[in-house]
Structures are given as C-alpha cells and as structure tokens.
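Human: My hope is that you can spare some time for a protein that puzzles me. I am handing you a single protein, as its sequence and its fold in token form. Could you go through the record with me and say what the backbone is doing? Take your time, and here it is.
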Amino acid sequence: MDFKKEFLKYLKFWPWFLLSLILCVGAAFIFIKIVPPTYQTSAMIFLDKKQEDKTKIITISTDQKNNEDNLDDEIRLITSNEFLLGVVKNLKLNVSYFEKVYTTQNNAVNEVPFVLKLTVSRDSLPQVSYEIKVDKGGFIITDPVAEKKFRVNGYDGKEAVNGLPFKIRLASKAKKNASYYFDKEYKVNLEPTDAALKELKSSLIVLSDEKSKGTIELNHISSDPVRSRKILNEIIVLLDKSIVINKQKTFTNTVTYLNQRIKSFTREKDSIESVKERYLQNNEIAVMDNYIAEKTADRSQKTESSLLNEKQISLANYAINDIRKRDAGQTLGTNYNLESSIVNQMLLNYNTKLMDSELILQRAQKNNPAYITLMTQLRVSKQEILNSLEGYLNFLNQNNIVNKTQETIAASKIKNIPTQDKILGNINSNLSMKEETYVALLQKKEEAVLNGAILESNLKTLNAPETNYSAIFPQPKSFMLGAFLFGLLLPFGIIYVRLYLDTKVHNEEDIQKVIANIPILGHIPKINTTEKLENTATSHSLIAEATRTLVSNIRYLLHKKKEDKGNIILFTSCIQGEGKSFCAFHNAVTISNLNKKVLLIGVDLRNPQLHEYFNINKNVSGLTNYLANKNDDWKEFLQKDTNYSKNLDILLAGEVPPNPSQLITNSNFEALIEEAKDLYDFIILDTAPVQIVSDTLNFSHLADVTVFVVKYDYTDKSNLVQVSNFIKKEQLRNVGILINAVNMKTAYGYGYGRNYGYQYQELKIKRPWYKRGLRIKEA
C-alpha cells in the first residue's frame, strides 16, 4: 500500500476535517459548560455474617449452608422497590430544587428561600417543572411548557392557586431579607413517586466487594453531591432498621414456635409417663432390676422346694417299703431323714416298745398274755406308722403338684422378663427423648428471651458517604479528546464510505484494473470556460501543454506508412458528457499549430458539439449534407477558422438527420476520408459514444489511432468493461486512453501540480474553502 498516496487522497479534504474538528470540539466545549457535571458519591458498609450466626436461636449445619460471604439477599433488599420507596418518601425525592443560571442547565441547590406544601398526594403528582421568582408582591410561578404564569400574593402560603399542585410560602430565614432573593430565579421539578423511584434505581449502583468479604459498596451518581450523600445515609439507616426489624420478627416467631413446641412436648411427655405407669402397675413392677432379682429368687426357691419335696417322696416310699419288709420283732429304722416329726416320733415309740417286749420275752413265753398283748400293740403301732407314712406320702405328692405349677409359673415369668424389659426400655427411651427435647426447648426459649433483650444490627459503616468531585460526566479532558477524535473520524468515515462506494474513474490505476495493457496518452486538466480556448502556439496554459503532450504520445501509436497520406485520429468515449469533443478540438488546434494541415470532422451526428467551440450555428451545412447527397462537394461545407490556426479546417456535423446510422455507413463517408488523406496531414474525427450507439463502431476500422476519452470523477468503472470487450474483439483499433477534466489541485497520481516541470499559468478559479475537495461542474 502506498501510504503517501492514501494520505494525500484524504488530505485534499482538509477543509472538511478542519470544519468537523471546529464543530465537534466547539460543541463539546459548549456542552461541558452548559451541562452540570455528574459526580459519584460512594459509601461502604460491612455485614458481619458470623455475628449473625452467633445470635441465631436455631442453627442448622448442613452441606447446603449458605456461604458467609453471600450478600445477594442484602443487595436484592437494597435495590428492591419497596425499600427504595421508603428512601423516596423519607427524603421527599419527588421535589427537586434548582437555581436558574445561564452556565448550566440545572444548578441543584439544597436550600431555597421558599417552602412548598403539596396539595395532592405524592403518588399523583404531575411530572412538570416550574420556574419560581420572588418579588415584592409574592411569587411569580411559570410553567414554561404550558406557557402559563401564576401569581401568588403574599409570603404566608395561605393562598391556593388553581392549576398548581402546591401552596408556597417564604421560608422563615428568607423573611428577614426577602429583597436579597428578588434577582434570583429558581426551578422546581415535580414528579410522581413512580418516576422518582425509577430515577433513584437508575442512579444507584450496589456492588459486593470480592476482595473484602462481607462488604457492600453503595454508589449514587448525581449532579447534586449533597443530595447523593443524604440518599446513601438514608439507605444505610433504613437497612440497619430493616436488619433489626427482621431479627425482631425472627425472635417473635421463634419464641412463639418454641412455646407451641414446649406445650406439645409437655403433653407427649405426660402421655408417655402415664403409659409407663399403667404398664408397671399391670405387670406389678416397681423397679425392673429388683423385679428380675425377685423373680429369679422365686424361681430358684420353687425349684429347690420341689426338689426337696421329691426327695421326701422318695424317702417316704423307701421308708414304707422298708417297714413293710421288717417282721414284728425287728426294730424299725429311724434314719430315713423324713421331715415328718410325727412319723419320726412314732418310729421311736415303736422301737421303745419293741425293746420293752424283748424284756418280757426274756421272762415269759410267746403265749404269755402280756407278750401277746404287747405284740398286738406293736403290730398296731407298725400299721399306724405305715398309715402315717402313706398319709405323709400323699401330702408330699400334693405338694409336688403345687410346686410344679408354681415352678412353671415362675419360669414363665422369668421367660417374659426380656420382652417386658424391651417394652419398658422403649417407653423409657421415648420418655428420655421427650424429656431431653423438652429441656432443649426450654433452654432455646431462654436463649431467645436473652437474645431478644439485646437485639442489635450486624451492620457497620466502614466508609461514610463521600463524593468524588472529579466529575464522571462530562470529563473535560476525556470529553474534549473524544470530541477531537470524533471530529477526525466523522469526516474520515464519510469520505471513506464515499470513496468506497465511488465507482468513478480517478486515476490510471482505476483504468488499468479494468483495461490492462492499454497506454495512457495523457491528462487534460480541468479549466473554466474563459481559459478553455487559450491554446495558441505560444501559450503556456495547462491545456496547451497537456494537448502538446497528447500529440507527442499519439505519434508513438502511429505506424509508419509507405504512402504519404494523412493520419486518422478517432476520438470517442463511453457515454455522453465525457469531453471527447473538447479533447478533439484542442488536439486539432495543437497539431495545426505545429504547421500540420488538420481536418476536424464532427462525426457525432446525433449530438454534435463542435460548433460551440467556433461560435457557429448548429444547423450550418456539414457532413450530413454531403452524406445525404454525394453529388455535393464536401469541401464546400468546410469552415476555415483563422482564430486558432490557418492550418485548421472544420467539417461540422450539420443538421441532425433522422437516420444517422444509415448515413454514416454508406460509402460516401469512406470516400470522404480517402480523399481527405491526400489533402491533410491529420484527420481528427469527433465521434459518438460507443456504449450508447453503434455509429462509431461502423467506421472505427478507418482510424489509425483511437483516442478513448475517460472523464475524471465522471466515467463509471463499469462502463470500461464493455470498452475492454470492444478492444478484445478489435472493434476499436490501436487504442490509447486520454483522461479528461483532471482537477490538478486535488488529484494525485497524474504528474501534475504546482511543482510541474515547466511554468504554467495559475488557474484563475477561486473556490470558497468549504467547497474545496468537492466536485466542480466544468463548463
């Protein structure tokens, strides 16, 4: 990329850049002076979540426990409509006061010499502004929008004016010197609560500080720093009150809940105790451990008693059998270990009597009556002993049955002890749990009562509201720098878009991108009407020098001919208005001034232009007359123009014919050319545009050189595509391109300018500075 070329391409529009800079920087300067600066007021508060957790009556520890640093709930509270509505009402933000000055739009003030008493509710206030002025008679109130004026007489504020939503009186401090305020004007803005709330929300910024955990930063943006500080202070106060109120609600709800739970657990505990009492009574249990020991001892006793009884049964059976086996003279055993004292005594008595009988037998015979009587008594005693033993045995058998039954009952009771212990354990467990919960609830209630007595907020103000008096809007340096950059970028963007969308031809590169390998013959400068004809042999004007260069370049395209005949130079273009007639005329004048015989023919039969350069009537006889009638001599229609050169002859087109294509394609035109070659050194043809009609293509083969005229800042690049096709098809021969109407002061890349290699006459066109860089309509 050629940066110099790109720079110069934009540099020619420097007046627009200068104008844009002046307007943008000037507007920014005026804006800074008119608009009141906006300041940011900040405050920082700290919420101690750990202290809050310590004062909680009931704490729940789970994996989902909120992070101590999470302040989303507090931020949502501060920015909620209900919370900010309290700020609006407490500070009466529906009404704003301003001192009317001429350097700013609104110079906010916090003290005014009057007091407004609203006669309507704040929610239904109209959104309107009033201008208020104090004078000797009272107050003059103006509604600039409705263009109404209201007069309030006196300073006491008793008069209600129809159409005003307030009463007004002079403040006590201002009454001492009311004349001091006569020259001042004030402005009062009223707005409903909803509008004031929206304005407050839009100007309030609440952020949590990530670096300092538990810290909230409050920012308020306004042109009134005093009001901003009041707003932030009020937010802090309301937040502190809200925290305490929420804690009080939590305390009240918690105590109420604890009382309900305590009553419920009291009923449940009493019910379980009643169940336990009934169970113990039904099962004859005093203390479970004693009950177990008692039943175990009872079972042991019953078992032991049963064993002893069975042993006595065995001994009794043994004793009966043993006594029965003994004869009448034998002693009975006394070591049967029977527990019957009667039987034991009877056995002793029997043995005693038996010993007595032994003494009698030693002295008498068996038939002795005493002996017989004694033996009879012994038999009777033995039988009585047996009878007693059998009675004792029956008694033992009865006792054995009873003992077995009691033993079974005792064993059953022992077997049921685990079940009873389990049931009683469950009852005791439930009762213990209820008692523990009951005690815990009583403890929590006591803690709640104590915490309720010392409720306090966990909010602490780290930084009181402070205003940064370095204005955030408009910032003079940044604003002026931005205006300066915008002043540069605005015209640059417009020019860039204009150049990007511009499809016109501006330099050789534009042409060569479409038509390659075609030589550029030269550049014809853009001049005004008065300089157009200054092209004499001694002229040093731009047009004269440019056409001389053109002639020199054309000669390089001319092929050497064996015959000494004139050269045919054909001038054409894409469309009408590109200056081909102008270039053909000046080229003819320049060649004729080189002592060459030149014939300039106007072949554009549809729109002839050459007559204008010679001040000749358009309808004068010319080429069309000859083409229509070959019997006429074309030389009779020649115009001798001695004003420019005696070597120049002109054959104008003549009247516009109804059939130009038919005329130009007949043999008369070729005959004319052939004849003219012998008479002139150069024959210059001013032809019709090739893209509009096909007239030129019908005789383009006659030309030795085709000069294709492209107009600077006029010819569209798309038109050159079709011309390129004509060249490829050889419908145009030996083509060279001439760029016409080049603005030498603004164009870049043509080799012309104020430092051109030869002296030239300064153009006399004087343009206003604001038109420089724009297109100039050429003559």
Residues 315 and 336 are 6 Å apart (CA to CA). The first strand starts at residue 38 and ends at 47. The radius of gyration is 68 Å. The first helix runs from residue 3 to 11.
